[in-house]
Write a structure and sequence with these properties.
By secondary structure, the chain is an alpha+beta fold. It has a domain at about 50-160. The chain has three helices and four strands, in the order αβαβββα. It has helices at about 1-55, 65-70, 130-254, and strands spanning about 60, 75-85, 90-100, 110-115. It has a four-stranded antiparallel sheet with strand order 1-2-3-4. α1 packs parallel to α3. The protein is rod-shaped, with a radius of gyration of 62 Å.
Length: about 250
């Protein structure tokens, strides 16, 4: 009787102990998980900036995008390297972009600052996968920025091409104007030479006429002068003959 009455009590106490032990273990495990999550959350907040900075650092290319869509993408080289670390844990990164054929001539240079998550803001980096997601999002942001820069560069190239075409058209127009001016100059020069030759011919003809008239006047004057001289000579000879005749008569008379 006594042993039969004690058996249920012992059995009920053993089951209760097992339940209490299981509940205690569950509470310990749950508290440990919460403590670990709090510790991880408090320690990773300052590590996020370093993790993202490490993920962004290095040399990256857009070779795959350029290969898949060469009409809209260029193969760019993006180089990121840590510059310094601030007191609050923020990382300063030096970033440059260049064409892969000319890495020594970057067309864009910047400094980026990666800051830790604020206390009042839940950080989205919880584990390695989360860090990769954040780094991937940062890379996507950089890629979109690079795409915007490429679009801007294409626009600039298109405007430069239009300006070049306009300059070429202006140069062609100026060359045509220069050729027209040179042709007009040649025509004016030829007309001037022709006018000079015509004037020279007219002047030569006038001078020839004047010389001929002058020569005719000289001949006439010479003829008149010669006639006067011949008349004078004849008169003088007649006078001398008369004088000789009178002298001869006087001699004969004497």
């Amino acid at each position: 009787m006594g042993s039969g009455e004690d058996t249920p009590g012992v059995t009920g106490g053993g089951v209760g102990g097992i339940v209490r032990g299981a509940a205690l273990k569950a509470l310990v495990v749950f508290g440990g998980v919460i403590l670990i999550r709090r510790l991880r959350r408090s320690t990773t907040r300052w590590d996020h900036a370093r993790t993202v900075a490490d993920a962004l650092s290095g040399e990256k290319f857009s070779r795959e995008q350029a290969r898949q869509d060469p009409g809209n993408y260029f193969n760019l080289r993006m180089l990121t390297c840590p510059a310094t670390e601030m007191v609050d844990g923020s990382g300063v990164l030096y970033f440059e972009q260049a064409f892969w054929r000319a890495p020594e001539k970057p067309f864009r240079q910047r400094f980026y600052m990666v800051k830790p998550c604020p206390k009042e803001m839940k950080c989205d980096v919880e584990d390695y996968h989360g860090r990769r997601v954040v780094a991937h999002n940062a890379l996507l942001s950089l890629h979109r920025e690079a795409e915007d820069q490429l679009v801007d560069l294409r626009d600039r190239l298109a405007r430069a091409g239009q300006e070049r075409d306009a300059l070429q058209e202006e140069g062609s127009r100026l060359r045509q104007e220069v050729e027209l001016l040179q042709a007009e100059k040649r025509d004016c020069k030829a007309a001037h030479h022709a006018e000079l030759e015509r004037r020279d011919a007219v002047h030569r003809d006038a001078m020839s006429e004047k010389v001929a008239a002058h020569n005719a006047d000289l001949k006439r004057l010479v003829g008149v002068h010669n006639g006067e001289l011949e008349h004078r000579d004849a008169s003088h000879a007649a006078t001398l003959k008369d004088k000789d005749a009178r002298l001869a008569e006087e001699v004969e008379a004497a």
